[in-house]
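note to self: the first set is below, dont mix up w the second
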Amino acid sequence: MNQTPRARHWRLLALLAAILVFAVACGDSDEDSTDTTAAAADTDDTGDSGCDHEPIVAAFVYIGPVGDAGWTKKHDDGRLSLEEALGDCVETQYLENIPEGADSVATFDRLAREGTDVIFGTSFGYMEPMLEVAANYPDVKFEHATGYKQADNMSNYFGAAEEARYLSGMAAGSMTESNTIGYVAAFPIPEVLRGINAFALGAQRVNPDVVVEVVWTSTWFDPVVEKEAAESLLNGGADVIAQHQDTPSAGEAAENAGGYWVGYNDDMSRFAPDAWLTAPVWDWGPYYVAVVESIADGSWSSQSYYGTMADGLVTLADVSDKVSQDVRDDIANVQGEIIAGSFTPFDGPVNDQDGNAKVAEGEKPDLGTLLGMDYLVEGVIGNAAG
């Protein structure tokens, strides 16, 4: 594989790019930003890098800024882990604040034309744009996070956040005194519905009287809207807030109101330590390393990857000692059962809001059923259609 002029350009200007990226990430600009590998100190293209191949050029396209402290930040942590693991054998760049739709089509097309070897798109709404562009560039590898469509040169990847959601729901259910937990959620797609349902079932495991009230924000990243949604739930009687959002704003609202908070994506405890309980956490680095290594050795093939707590893609942040020791022990025991495969969050019986059986007693839904989830379970207040 010949190294592209674009790739060499990024190597030469990496230090400058990193400074510019930092400046943009700290602001509210919708302009895209880029970064490259830490190999800027080595601008010699003679091949003295310890690699037996030209560097694999990998691009990451983000829906939000790397400074969101959540979803995008964790994907960028994965990109940095990739750089650390493979060193001069990989060159990366990222583009942030790329809207879904036509803007992402143009972004994916440009990256493919510029000689990128693999493009990672990290938002559900990138699925159709990636599929469209992938058809035009059969020699470029495309990797889409959270979707379900594939092509010969396009994989999808995601993970069982519902496993950690269930455990975090147990923590939340044990802490509410009002028996109302608020849930600030982005969009009513299967990924989000699955998380709400698993969380509610976990909360009901330790507190059968719990209800989970959902407010839809129609945004992945909007700190003001997220905080306002959390405040509305708190004002309505919720004393614990959970979220499927990309920032810690909901937690800040919970702390201001004297409530508790379950985060998402990362350990965000530093933003509202008094409210913090726990959170489902992602670790994307090993997957990104495996993908790039498979491209380098020629073994890459299109796949649907769904990681779990057992393989480490999904973890649970440390549970606050505000949660009783008995509940923390129970959470640890259930986590062990999930990892061993003897329990899943949607083991039947599971009913929808209207009492209709969705999973019969003794049954375990298959992955396809989970990926198509379009309902909310009993005890959840809200509309599954948004």
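second set (the one i keep forgetting abt)
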Amino acid sequence: MDLQPHQRAVALALATVALLLAGVATASAASTPLGNGFNVRPDAGAGEERAPSYFTLNAEPGTVLDRRVLVSNGSDKVQRYRLDPVDGLTGVTSGTVYGNRDDRNNATAEWLTPSVRQVTLAPGESRRIPFRVRVPETARPGDHVGGLAFQDSVETTAKSNLSVTQVIRIVVGVRIIVPGGSPGPVTIGKAQIQALPGTSVASVELPLENTGERLCRPDLRVVLTSEDGKEDVVERTLDTLLPGAKIPYPLAWPRKIEPGTYGVRANVTGCGAAQEYSGTATLRDSLVGTDDAPKAAPPTTVVKQQGGMPGWAIAAIAGGALLLGLAPTIVRRVRRSE
């Protein structure tokens, strides 16, 4: 059963908050075993002691390449997975994420052809799965990102007033570099000051677009100038922006922002030619900074991540995950029980 309008609104708010506060997993997550013992990673090539966590392939237009992924079942149960090519996308907070198998996936995913679409592994079994990469003759220069998504064919449902169906999913990223292409620039749109969805935490939202043909990780510097001339500065290095990516980047502000009209200056470097923005933004209601946000009690389950995250953010994400399965390798569908 599809989500009702009010459920969609709740789902969107929870998903957005989780993405804004935590970011999304990149291809490197693929080398980490899931809780059910299933593991997927690129197969080591000749002379390699250990394969990287995702593929990086250099290829001319018209090239055909054959590669393999290594899948392992570390559990004591038979596991069955379906395998689908998916497109690489840019998350709201930057970083590479991947499409679902039901999406159109008509970009880089079309270059990837796995040798099988279903995988069944006995307890303790490992298997190498070949796949082919066909780079079109018309491929533009620069970076192209897709992935191979392994999704559990067995769904687990917990029933209560709100039933949750959980499906395990893990993606191995495939980055294909066609020679040529220019980096950036990353352009900046009109800034707004607003709360992160569902919170009273301040953010400066800046629409960003990677107009180049290469993926890049830009450096962002934002200056807020209050009506009395005081300046407040935040600098941040973003995660990956794929070519052509357009995101409404929400820069969470560490300090409280009072109501008023502010001058906003921003510049982006590190992705081709430096870009600058200058404008104004008005805030009507006071918002707290991330440093002042309520702190939550330590969670009973700890997930190690790159970079630090305040306790209140973990609590917000955990609450959303209970409804929507926002952990990067889990897909959940929520519906009302009949």
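remember for set 2: Residues 1-32, 297-338 have pLDDT under 50 and may be disordered.
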